[in-house]
Amino acid sequence: MVAASRRNRKPFTVGGAPASKSKNARAMSAVVAIVLMTSTLMSCSNHHEASLVGGTRLVLVPQTVGSDLVTTEKITESIQTIKHRLDGAKLAGAQVFAQGLHQIVVLLPRTPSPGTLNLVRAQGQLRFRPVLAVASEQPGTLSGSGAAVAPRTPVGGSAPAPTNASDLVWAHQLVPGTGMTWAQRFQKASCEDPKSVSTETETDNLPFVTCASDAKEKYLLGPAELLETDIKNASARPETNSQGQIVGADWQIDLTFTPAGAKRFAAATTRLAALTGDQNRFAIELDTLVISAPSVQEAITGGQAQISGVFTPDEATTIANQLTAGSLPLKFQIQSQESITATPQGP
Questions:
Q1: Are 251 and 239 in contact (CB under 8 A)?
Q2: Rounded distance, CA 15 to CA 5, Å?
Q3: How large is the average pLDDT for residues 273-284?
Q4: Does the reported pTM lie above 0.85?
Q5: For the chain, which terminal residue's Cβ has fewer other Cβ atoms within 10 angstroms, N or C?
Q6: Which of 316, 346, 264, 345 lies closest to 53, judged by CA?
Q7: What would the DSSP string read from start to end of 137-155?
Q8: Is residue 267's pLDDT more than 80?
Q9: Distance (Å, whole) CA 332 – CA 286
Q10: At how many degrees (to 10) do helices 114-121 and 72-88 cross?
Q11: How many whole angstroms separate alpha carbon 208 and alpha carbon 134?
Q12: How many CB atoms lie within 10 A of CB 9?
């Protein structure tokens, strides 16, 4: 829409008018140009909505986090990614376009399901991180490996350098910009109080404290070892056992890694398979929440993996489409949602 409006300005400029034209005439020409330009923009916007009757109109606005900046390039990239996601979900007739400088309008052919809303607004950032510690979020308890990283003052004022992403030495490194260690941050965090969990911008090469998507466990995770950019393709299907038989009603997400991602995944699972307890687990984190944290029984070198959990078909399909289309460069929230009804058109 913005690009179209700029192109439409050229036919209405008055720069080529004769030098003898009066100031009033030039002013009148400028007014006419503005009116025509406004009419063109309104006509373009109305065309989008008139072509989709009986659907839903969503207006998305970006949420800045930390040093994130909203730019025209990021808005354009977000529009293309959302289009790709909707195409993957086979939502024929869906339309995505910019409105103003910092808003995105999504027109859907029907009332969206919760999965479709997540498909549109979720950032879709995936990270694989090794588990350093887990604690139950049952009130008054600390179970799992939480006690293994209990806060302690580093000897000599500093802890030794970690040797890999699973090294428990990470727990006793200081959180940047604070006077506490990652173990102390983990102990203070509560999934019942989101503000007590890590609220700073997540950094891939540092640990992270977060919760399970169902808020039943909290995690201290090591640095990220794979990102969504390491995934070549993702698809959803009913969960199966080792014999390929469907088990229960839950669905799973099948992943195929890029060649570089396959090498990183093989190296990480080789290391994790040799560890015990919760350190044997590989957490899969989507938009800062852990959606699955399976144990690693053996090195996985084939370049493929599955994410299983309590996923409905809609949830699994949404996640698979997000991963295939890629993540959004910005976080968005839905500012408004309204139904599009038929409007009688004049001759």
A1: yes
A2: 18
A3: 96
A4: no
A5: C
A6: 345
A7: -STT---TTGGGG---PPG
A8: yes
A9: 15
A10: 150
A11: 12
A12: 13
Mean pLDDT of the chain: 79
Task: Tell me the C-alpha distance between 37 and 163, whole Å.
Answer: 62
Grade residue 66 by pLDDT with cuts at 50, 70 and 90: low
Burial state string for 57-78 with b = 16 or more CB within 10 A and e = fewer than 16: bbbbbbeeeeeeebeeebbeeb
Structural domains in the chain plus CATH codes: 53-123+331-339 (3.30.70.3400), 131-221 (no CATH), 226-325 (3.30.1360.200)
Per cent of the chain over pLDDT 70 is 73
Give the integer Cα–Cα distance in Å for 109 and 100. 23
In degrees and rounded to multiples of 5, residue 161 shows phi and psi of: -75, 135
User: What is the distance between the alpha carbons of residues 247 and 232, in angstroms, rounded to a whole number?
Assistant: 26
Residue pair 1/7 in contact by the 8 Å Cβ criterion: no
What is the per-residue pLDDT for 285? 92
Q: Which residue is associated with the tokens 């560890």?
A: 275
Distance CA 158, CA 207 (A): 17
3-state secondary structure of 177: coil
Residue 248: burial class (beta carbons within 10 Å; 0-12, 13-18, 19+): exposed
What gap in Å lies between CA 180 and CA 27, rounded to an integer? 65
**Residue pLDDT, tens place only, 137-188:** 754 444 455 545 654 544 445 668 999 999 999 999 999 888 899 999 999 8
Q: Residue 70: CA atoms inside 13 Å, Cβ hemisphere, count?
A: 14
State whether residue 300 is helix, strand or coil.
coil
Calpha distance 290→219 (Å, rounded): 8
3-state secondary structure of 303: coil
C-alpha closest to that of 279 among 152, 124, 170, 140: 170
Residues in the chain, total: 347
Compute the distance between CA of residue 152 and CA of residue 149 in angstroms, rounded to an integer.
Answer: 8
